[in-house]
Amino acid sequence: MPTVQVGDLKDDDFLLDVREDDEWQAGHAEGALHIPISEFVARYGELTEAAPQEGRINVICRSGGRSAQVTMYLVQQGIDAVNVDGGMQAWSASGRPVVTDGGDPGFVL
Fold it and tell me: How confident is the model at residue 90 (pLDDT cuts 50, 70, 90)?
């Protein structure tokens, strides 16, 4: 399983958040693309349109389980994807900002 540590991510790295809507609304990484795992296959085209052509997709969820599933799917499709180790819990614990859609401080649900 290709993984990346939160501390190794740069601010402009592409981030795909696969948590569900209630988790996203509580708080997320600013600039992340949100496609819940429950809708991922149906909305796959949104990812291919938004993702950088020559870049890696960093997949994140709450702790790393759901994002690992999506990462494996993407890798099987020949896409350069990695699982963010520890998910949003590690993101928040490392001091990275967690925001709501309105830009206010959020939290990891």
Answer: very high
Dihedral (C-alpha) 65, 68, 70, 75: value to the nearest 10 degrees?
A: -170
What is the pLDDT, as a whole number, of residue 64?
95
The pLDDT score that the predictor gives to residue 54 is: 86
Write down how long the chain is.
109
Query: What would the DSSP string read from start to end of the chain?
Result: --EE-GGG--TTS-EEE-S-HHHHHH-B-TT-EE--GGGTTTTHHHHHHHS-TTSPEEEE-SSSHHHHHHHHHHHHTT--EEEETTHHHHHHHTT---B-TTSSB----
Overall pTM > 0.90? yes
61 is catalytic: yes
Of residues 18, 29, 60, 61, which has the active-site annotation? 61
